[in-house]
Amino acid sequence: MPYDVILGDANPLMLAALSEIFDRDPRFSLVATARQGEGFLEACRRAPVRVAVSDWGLPGLSGDELLARLRDREDAPRVVIYAASPDPDLPRRTMAAGAAGFMTRDTAPEQLLDVAAAVAEGRMVFPFLDVRALAQDPREVLTAREKAILAALARGRTNAELAEEFGVSVNTVKFHLRNLYDKLGLKNRAQAIAFHYARAARTG
Fold first, then answer.
1. How many domains does the chain have?
2. Whole-prediction pTM
């Protein structure tokens, strides 16, 4: 079955071009498009999809705000940010905000399609990130919520206890844990706990 996808871009010409590209690819089924931040969120609410592709900062919402609004929804799509910004720190910012992939607009359309498919399948796709830019601490790529969940995880909390502590569903906890593992290159809960205590010992 093709992956349902929602596209967001303020530029109508870019949005039309993206729509045509995704429409032609049998891996995807285009569900909705949006030119405004609130419209993008509403489309995700009305028709939950596996993956969404959005510009960084649709009108009305910054990129950070958009991803924050999606982050705690258990039916939130995995988001690929497709940005024109020359800011070399943007890939790190999008990862920290909760995106699952990042591409620049000078990327070939075929590559964007491949990245969107990989993200829909559960992978995270980002360009090379210099770890020195992360203040020597890999935890800097985590959102505030993910850092809090990691700390609670290290205290022995189960998924059900994490859900109760943070006021979210167990599925949302699993979503956060999956992103946390992906960002830190970990495979499971035991590795995450070991990582937390190793970093705590190193930083005091």
1. 2
2. 0.65
Q: Which residues contact 33 (CB under 8 A, 6 or more apart)?
A: 6, 7, 8, 9, 15, 18, 19, 43
13/193 Cα distance (integer angstroms): 47
Same domain? 76 vs 155: no
Q: CA of 65: how far to CAs of 59, 69, 85, 102, 111, in Å?
A: 11, 6, 17, 16, 26
Contact 109, 21 (CB under 8 A): yes
177 shares a domain with 102: no
Which residues are paired to 3 by β-bridges?
28
Q: How far apart are CA 46 and CA 24, in angstroms?
A: 24
- Residue numbers of the domain that contains 40: 3-129
pLDDT tens readout for residues 115-156: 999 999 988 888 755 444 444 566 777 778 888 999 999 888
Beta bridge partners of 111: none
Name the strand (E) or helix (H) holding 6: strand 3-8
